[in-house]
Design a protein that fits this description.
By secondary structure, this protein is α/β, with parallel strands linked by helices. The chain is built from nine helices and eight strands. β5 and β6 form a beta hairpin. It binds BIS(adenosine)-5'-pentaphosphate (AP5) and magnesium ion.
């Protein structure tokens, strides 16, 4: 199955997408993770992307479209998290998939009130080694500062600072929110209330995928 997950920063795309992908065998293609790996490895795309990401702005479409095209294959299905993020990217995705004779089975819009988003982003911790996500209050690691899965060091993302969070939420409203109008009448569209606790959101997500 091919799934697009979209919604505001901090809504839980990465948390839920990772779980769903590991349980279904789909590839979890998280645009932010792909970009952060490129920044870390100082690839040409990473060098172009860095300043945009640090400021909480969208990386130019041609950069992200080229990066995601490399990752989409027909094997085992995919779960796109954080791409597309505007209408131009959604159109580019359609062209890309048509070229590979592939379609999107579900487009799932996750939403939650802004106070939940800020709360989730400001408490998020990520493992430097394996990328797994935690939260200071909602899913704390067993040992402070240390990943439960691999023992790696936990850090706070550069763009999870208060001022950058505010900018990301603004960019979301301006540039990503219009995707809702673009997608909501398409076949396979589902809207998900992601304001509850993680297991409840996951149950609603699996239902949205099956129904
Ligand atoms: P990206 O990394 O995709 O950031 P984002 O969209 O802002 O989303 P986040 O990853 O911050 O949130 P999430 O929804 O994955 O939440 P998570 O599950 O981690 O992108 C970063 C940057 O890259 C962008 O700003 C942009 O510069 C660039 N970029 C990426 N894609 C691009 C594109 N297509 N075009 C152009 N530029 C692009 O959860 C957050 C926290 O909350 C965690 O701590 C988690 O444990 C906790 N949590 C999750 N669910 C719950 C729950 N139900 N209850 C309580 N806590 C919860
Ligand atoms: Mg994410």
């Amino acid at each position: 199955m091919n799934i697009v997950l979209f919604g505001p920063p901090g809504v839980g795309k990465g948390t839920q997408g990772e779980r769903l992908a590991s349980e279904t065998g789909a590839s979890h293609l998280a645009m932010g993770d792909i970009l952060r790996a490129a920044v870390r490895d100082e690839t040409e795309a990473g060098l172009q992307a860095r300043a945009f990401m640090d400021a909480g702005k969208l990386v130019p479409d041609e950069v992200v479209v080229a990066m995601i095209e490399d990752k989409i294959t027909g094997d085992g299905g995919f779960l796109l998290d954080g791409f597309p993020r505007n209408v131009a990217q959604a159109e580019a995705l359609e062209v890309m998939l048509a070229g590979h004779d592939m379609t999107i089975d579900r487009i799932i819009f996750m939403d939650a009130p802004e106070k939940n988003l800020i709360d989730r982003l400001s408490g998020r911790l990520i493992c430097r080694a394996c990328g797994f996500g935690f939260h200071r209050h909602y899913s704390p690691p067993r040992e402070t500062g240390c990943c439960d899965r691999c023992g790696g060091e936990l850090y706070q993302r550069e763009d999870d600072r208060e001022d950058v969070i505010a900018n990301r939420l603004h960019v979301y409203q301006e540039q990503t929110q219009p995707l809702l109008a673009y997608y909501q009448d398409k076949q396979g569209f589902r809207k998900l209330d992601a304001s509850g606790e993680m297991d409840a959101v996951y149950a609603a997500l699996t239902k949205a995928v099956k129904d």
